[in-house]
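Researcher: We're teaching a course module on how sequence relates to structure. For the next exercise, students receive a sequence and then see the predicted structure as C-alpha cells, so they can try to spot secondary structure elements on their own. Here is the exercise chain.
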Amino acid sequence: PRSLLVIIRSPSVVWSVLPVVVAALLAITLLHPQPLMNVWSALPIRRVGLSPKTRTTPKAAARKNGPLLSRLLSSSQDSPSASSSQGIRQCAARSQREVFGFAATGKSGATPARDAVRALSSKPARSFAAMASSVVEKPLLAETELGTPLYDQVKNTTDRVVPDLKELLAQLNGQLDALEGSVGGLAPAEVTWENLVVPLEKIVDRLGKTWSVVTHLKAVCDTEALRKAVEEVQPEQVAFSLRLSQSEALYRGFKAIKEGAQWATLSEPRQRIVAENLRDAELAGVALQGEEKEKFNAIQQELSKLSTKFSNNVLDGTKAYVKTITAKEDVDGLPASALALASQTAKSKGHENSTAEEGPWIFTLDIPSYLPVMLHAKNRSLREETYKAYLSRASDGDIDNTVVIKRILELRKEMAQLLGYSCYAEVSLAAKMANLDQAKQLLEELRMASYDAAKQDMAEVKAFAKDNGFDEELRHWDVNFWAERMREAKFDVNDEILRPYFPLPQVMDGLFELVNKLFGIQVEPADGMTPIWNKDVRFFKISKNGETQSYFYYDPYSRPDEKRGGAWMDEVVGRSKVLAPAGSSVRLPVAHMVCNQSPPIGDAPSLMTFREVETLFHEFGHALQHMLTQQEEGLVAGIRGVEWDAVELPSQFMENWCYHKRTLLGFAKHWETGEPLPDELYQKLLNAKNYRAGTMMMRQLHFACTDLGLHSDYDPAVHGSIYDFENTIAETTMILKPLPTDRFLCSFGHIFAGGYAAGYYSYKWAEVLSADAFSAFEDAGLEDDDKITETGIRFRDTVLSLGGGRAPELVFKDFRGRDPSTEPLLRHSGLTTA
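Model: And here is the predicted structure for the students to work with:
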C-alpha cells in the first residue's frame, strides 16, 4: 500500500499503471463489491485530520467514579488475578493463521457459519485508512472519522508527544479561562446546563481522550522514549487536571444548578452528573485555601509520579528475570506447550537452533511462562527459584518499590487528612456503593464462610503429597504443584488436555454467538477501519437490528518485553450526544480489550487455557457495558460514572457462561480434528469448578483485607513495616503464612498503580451482584432459549444500558426486582455460611 502511494505521487508513471488499476478495481467490484466500498469510505482524505470538535469526558477508562482528577489520571483496570500483577501470526492467502495464528488445514475445526457472526478466519484486507494513512504533522491531536486515534503514527513519533500535549494543554487552559469567566459572571439563576456542563464536557473529553492515547501506548508498547515523554509532560497534565477539578467558578455553577429552580426539571442522569461533580470537586480539594491547597496539589503531583514509577519498576523487574535451561532433566514434567513457548522465547533471544524437544529453553516471569513451571515442573529447585523471583519483583536495587509504597501511603493519608477524613479509605469509599464498615463486614462474612474450607484444602494437598511419596515439608512452591497433581487424580482434567479445544478464533466465535443470543447484537470484523498499534490487534463492529452501536479493538497476546501484564478493558471514546460528529445524532462508543494470553506457537493457533477463556469473557463483559450503553449524557454513559464497586458486575457475570454446557460445547472443538469437547471432559471440568474454592476465596480476601487495612488502620509506629502489617493480616486470611522474603506488595499494581486503592474489595462486592444476576437466568431456566433471551434483554436494557446515569443499587433492582443476596455467590462457589 505504501508503494502504491509512491506511484500515485509520481505523475510520470500514473498513466502507465492506470489501465491495470482500473481493471483490478472492476474485477474486485464484480467479485466482492462490499470490500471496495469499505476502501472508498476509508480513504485518508476523509478519515484523518485534526478534529473540528473538542471532545471527551473524564477518563473513565478505569471505570471509576472518584474525583475528576483521579478519573483523568486513572489507568485502566486489570482482571482480578492479582497474581498477574496487573495481566495476553502470514500466509499469502490471508489464512486463518494470519488472523489469530490459526493454521488453515483441512481439519481446522472451523465452526459452522452463524447468522450473528462473520467468520473470523476471513480477515478483510485493511483499508487505506489503516494501512497507508497520510502522515500528519501532529498525530496525537488527530483522529479518524470514528474518533479513534492514529495509534500507529503516535507510536512511531514519540518525539511529538510532549509538544503536542503542551499545545493541547495551552488550548484547554484558554477554553477553561473562557468558561470560568462566562460562568463566574452569571447570577446563580442564569447558570444552565447548556452554558456550564456542555462546554465542560468538551474540555474534559478532549483532555481525557488524548492523554489516554499516551497511557495506552505506554501499557502495550512501552519504550524508553515514551517513558521520558510521559515524565516530562505529566506534571503539566496533572496541573491542568487539578485546576479543572478545583475550579471555584465551576463549583459555584454546579451548586447554583442544584439549589436553583431548574434542579427539579433535570433528568435523573443530569442530576447524577451535578451531584457527582460537586462531590468530586470537594474530594479534589476545592474548599482548600492557601498553603493547604498548595500542599494538596503537591501531593497529587508526587502521587502521579510515584504511580508511574511503580509500574515501570514492576515491568523492569519482570523483564529482568531470564532463566536459561539446557538440561532436559531440569524441565521434566513441563507440558509440550510450555516447552514450545520456552523454545520460542529462546529463539527470540538469540538461540536460533532451539527446539521444544531439545532446548535450550528460556523461562520468564510472564504469566504464560511462569504458571506452567509452578504447576508442572518436577524440578523442585526450579520451582523454588521461580517462585521467589516472582514474589520479589521490584523489591531491591534501583527498582525497589518498598520506598515507593511507603511514600504513597504517607501521601494518601496526608491528603485524606487535608480533606477532613481520618484515612484514605474513607476518601476512596466516598464515591462507592459501600462505606468502610460495610466493605469490612462483607469481607468478614465471606472469610468466615471460607476459612475452614481453605484449611481442609491444605490438609488434603498435604495428605495427597505424602501418599505419593513426598515426605518433606510442603513449601509455598510445592502447594500448586501437588494441588495440580491432586486435581488430575480427582478429575482427570488439566489445562493441557483442554487447550486443543480452545483455539482463539473458535472461542471468539462462541463468545459472539452468546452475546447475540443474550442481547440481540451482532459482532463482525471491521479490520482496516482504523489504525492499530500492533499487527496482532483486531478491530470489530457491534450492531443491533442492523444499526451500528459501537466498535472495539482486541489485543490478545503476551509481549513481555513491551506490554504490562494482566488483562484490562479501557474506553477509547464514549457515547455522547454533545460530541456527536456532523450528520449524526450521537457519538458511538469505542473500547479496547487487552489480554496477555498464550501466543501462537509454530503452526498451531493460540490454544487457550480455560482461565484465559474466562478472562476473555470477563473483559468482554466490561466492554459490553461501555459499548451497549444507550445513555447519551456523555459524563455518565457506559462505564463512566458507575460506582467502582459495581463495575465488575457485567464482567464477572459473563464468566458464568463459560460453564454453561450448550455455550461451551458450541465453540469447544479440537483445533485439528474439529471434534467437540467430549461430554466426559465437560463433566470433569464442571466437577473441578469449585476445586479448592475456599483457598481461592481466601486468596482474594487476603488481597482485599490487606488493601483496606493499609489504607485505614496501618500505622508504621504501631505495626512496623508494610510487610509486618501484611503478615498480621495473613494470620486470619492465609493458611500457609507468607515467607519472610515475600515482597508481593512490591508488584501489587492494582492498589499502587491501577486505581484499586482501598477498592480491591470491590471484586467481591461486585461478585455478589454478578452471581445474583446470573441466578436470574438460572431461575428462568438455562435450557429455555426464549426465557434466556427475555432475561438477557432485560439485563441489556438495565445493567448494560443505563451507565452511570442511575445509582447501581437501583439498576440492580430494575433487573432483579430485589436487593442482592450473598447466597448465590456462596452456592456457586460450593461454600456455605459458617
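Model: If you want an answer key for the exercise: The beta strands are 49-50, 77-78, 142-143, 323-325, 361-363, 522-525, 538-544, 547-557, 568-573, 590-597. The first strand starts at residue 49 and ends at 50.
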